[in-house]
Design brief:
Elements (H helix, E strand, L loop, with lengths): L1 H11 L1 E2 L2 H24 L1 H6 L23 H20 L3 H18 L7 H14 L8 H8 L7 E2 L1 H19 L14 H7 L15 H16 L2 H11 L6 H6 L4 H19 L5 H8 L6 H11 L7
Helix pairs in contact: 2-4, 2-6, 2-14, 4-5, 5-6, 6-8, 6-14, 8-10, 11-13
Length: about 325
């Protein structure tokens, strides 16, 4: 009974919506711009239509098949409608409904074209699902503006969706690194994985042959990436220790001497920006960095934003 009460209390905790609002804006804009670029370029026809309709490969079956068939008309409407829902989500207009509609549209489209998808398909789907319940429209949104005009205070957001977003980052990084079991990745091996990736032009934005002589540096980067992803569990541990910093314990006190969240996420920021500059990885970078805000509480993000705001002088 005590454990159940603890779970109920944890699920009932609420905080300012600032952190999940950052996630909402980032994910909404990323999904909208990603889908609109696919629509504008015409790529949607290749990846989300049957070969008879101009697609490149046979489509995968989806849970929506009994109710919705992929035709040129239905897919184009779904792309544009999902992009519109994602924009509504970013601006915080009918936020839970916008998140749900974006999640459904994204799920159908990415299920259709699994052969042309990426791991960020699942990352976006999971974040969108959590945004349905996150209360992210409580601040910096159309919903919040309407509430303010009606004289209602901004609602607090439940904490549990934000914690699951942090755990989503940990699962993403850790499952990725556990798949890197070749000698090209693990310590003691050749550590040449990134050298080969940089010399394989499939996803490149620019010609990377200039980096070929820097083989030792790519070995260091390979092992650093492997270590960063393996250390992802420290992110949720650091967030929890920071959240419970008033509790006793030598280990918690030592851990809180430095905010390891900031250090870990700063390294991740450098890594993802570097990837984005030289490689085409779709929406992966923007989605991941959007989720980084979930590692901080709503109160922390609110204080940070307040610190950035210009102070008004007195007359």
């Amino acid at each position: 009974m005590k454990r159940w009460q603890a779970w109920v209390e944890a699920a009932s905790r609420r905080e300012p919506a600032h952190a999940v609002a950052v996630v909402r804006v980032g994910v909404g804009l990323t999904v909208a711009l990603h889908l609109l670029s696919i629509w504008q370029s015409g790529v949607w026809r290749w990846i989300w239509l049957q070969p008879a309709d101009g697609g490149l490969v046979k489509l995968s079956s989806t849970p929506f098949d009994p109710w919705l068939r992929a035709t040129p008309q239905s897919v184009e409407v779904a792309v544009l409608a999902t992009a519109a829902a994602a924009l509504a989500l970013a601006f915080g207009l009918a936020t839970p409904l916008a998140a749900a509609l974006t999640a459904l549209g994204w799920a159908w489209l990415t299920d259709l074209g699994r052969n042309a998808g990426g791991s960020y398909d699942f990352l976006a789907a999971n974040l969108l699902f959590l945004l349905v319940f996150a209360g992210s429209g409580g601040i910096a949104s159309v919903d919040a503006a309407i509430r303010s005009r009606l004289g209602r205070p901004p609602p607090l957001a439940p904490v549990w969706p934000r914690w699951l977003m942090v755990w989503q980052l940990v699962v993403m990084y850790d499952t990725t690194v556990w798949q890197k079991v070749s000698s090209g990745w693990v310590p003691g091996g050749a550590a040449d994985a990134l050298w080969y990736i940089f010399q394989q032009p499939t996803w490149h934005r620019i010609d990377m042959r200039w980096l070929a002589p820097a083989y030792p540096l790519t070995q260091i980067a390979t092992l650093g990436t492997w270590a960063f992803e393996h250390a992802s569990v420290l992110l949720v541990l650091a967030a929890w220790f920071r959240h419970t910093r008033t509790r006793g314990g030598w280990f918690r006190a030592q851990f809180n001497r430095v905010d390891w969240r900031v250090l870990y996420l700063f390294v991740g920021l450098l890594m993802h920006v570097g990837i984005e500059l030289v490689m085409e990885v779709g929406a992966f970078t923007a989605l991941t960095l959007s989720a980084y805000a979930a590692a901080f509480s709503g109160d922390e993000v609110r204080r940070f934003v307040s610190g950035l705001s210009p102070r008004r002088g007195t007359a």
